[in-house]
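Comment thread on ticket #2218

A.B. wrote:
> Attaching the input chain for the structure job we discussed in standup.
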Amino acid sequence: MKRKILIFLIVMFSISISSRLYSQYEQKFTLQLASGYVFNGGVSFDAGVQYNFSRTFSTAVLIKYTPIQVQGDLKLHIVGINICPKYIFFPQSKINPFILGGVGINYYSFKIPGASEFQNKEHVKLGLTGALGLDFRASDNIAIFLQGGINAIQSADANKNFYTKKYITAGVNISMFKSRTL
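C.D. wrote:
> Ran it. Output below, let me know if you need it in another format.
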């Protein structure tokens, strides 16, 4: 598993190095808000701030909340904070395909109604995320996006397995600040 994480981080670092970080590009801070569906589980709510280094490369810090109905009254609550590099393929187009990946810290808890404090479990574990998506530019400051991907959270078992869920998310990016570096 450590090998997979290392390969993932090397790929994301390579994408960030290969993107052009020319100073003539506009740099923007972007607010991201989204909601999505987690397959076989429930919904997710995301919020984050993204910094665009160039028109093709950005990095976002995202907070994601996902309540998942596991079975009966057993509910899993996940709160994750992720750092996600993002590469946009056609930045001049109205429709921009993108790829993103990230690593983060996830807090998750099982809550069983009526259970004692010792039966409820809470953990803080490593998480990985990856997604493909489309960004639809409505204006210079507003974009609507749709993305699908997978989240993997390290489980609490001794084998260090990952709990994975596929998801689809729709949201809006609101660019708030622009600057030009000359």
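A.B. wrote:
> Thanks. Noting for the ticket: The CA atoms of residues 110 and 121 lie 5 Å apart.
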